[in-house]
Design a protein that fits this description.
Distance between the termini: 65 Å
Strand content: 35-45%
Structural class: alpha+beta
Largest sheet: 10 strands, antiparallel
Radius of gyration: 21 Å
Number of strands: 10
Number of domains: 1
Order of helices and strands: HHEHEEEEHEHEEEE
Helix content: 25-40%
């Protein structure tokens, strides 16, 4: 192959690779993970969580046994059966709730993981749940949320400031009894739900994607 042609191909491939990397970096900057990092800087970590939902054609007993076996082999914690198709696992920092139900020849699964250890981000929680997925699952969905207590030096942090500093677009804000809540979209199109809630002990900043699935 002509040397000049080889060099041209190399340059073109380099540009393609740079474009791929650039897209990944842009997506990372506009992701829930990036938003969580920003909110951690202005708050004291309280908890975060991730939820996995999917459906499978495997029968409910088989799927329940598969999840139990995975969790038993990977999590050293206390186990409690809520009912036939719901169980939970607890240790010092993690709370996991698993629900299964049948509908239209499918088994539906919902696994919720709540974490109290600030060293784990929602990205870490997703990695944990990812391993619990059924390889034949369909309509897989992930939900994330973070809650932190407003730091003393940031006690003037407002719902507008949260939206503006994090470039949340198409925002809709609502005043509620003990604070403010809102919805909007990150630059990458992900839907975001956010709130600043006042308690006797101070204000908490809460974010979720696409919704806040925990109570507050």
């Amino acid at each position: 192959m002509n040397i000049k042609v080889s060099i041209l191909i190399f340059i073109l491939l380099s540009f393609f690779n740079m474009g791929a990397v650039s897209t990944e970096v842009t997506n990372a900057k506009n992701s829930f993970s990036s938003l969580e990092t920003n909110i951690r800087n202005v708050s004291e970590f309280q908890e975060n969580g991730a939820k996995l939902q999917y459906k499978t054609r495997d029968n409910i007993e088989k799927e329940s046994d598969r999840i139990k076996e995975y969790l038993a082999n990977n999590i050293n914690a206390s186990y409690r059966e809520v009912n036939k198709n719901q169980f939970e696992i607890r240790d010092n920092n993690f709370y996991t709730n698993i629900k299964l139900w049948c509908e239209d020849k499918y088994t539906y699964v919902e696994i919720t993981l709540i974490n109290k250890d600030d060293k784990y981000t929602t990205v870490d929680l997703k990695r944990i749940l990812k391993k619990a997925e059924n390889q034949k699952s369909k309509n897989t969905k992930y939900f994330f949320y973070y809650e932190g207590k407003e730091k003393e030096q940031n006690n003037d942090y407002s719902i507008d400031k949260l939206a503006n500093e994090n470039n949340i677009q198409k925002t809709k804000l609502l005043r509620i009894t003990n604070g403010n809540t809102g919805t909007g979209y990150l630059s990458n199109g992900d839907k975001i739900n956010f709130a600043i809630i006042s308690y006797n002990t101070g204000s908490n900043i809460i974010i979720g994607s696409p919704i806040i699935f925990a109570t507050y």
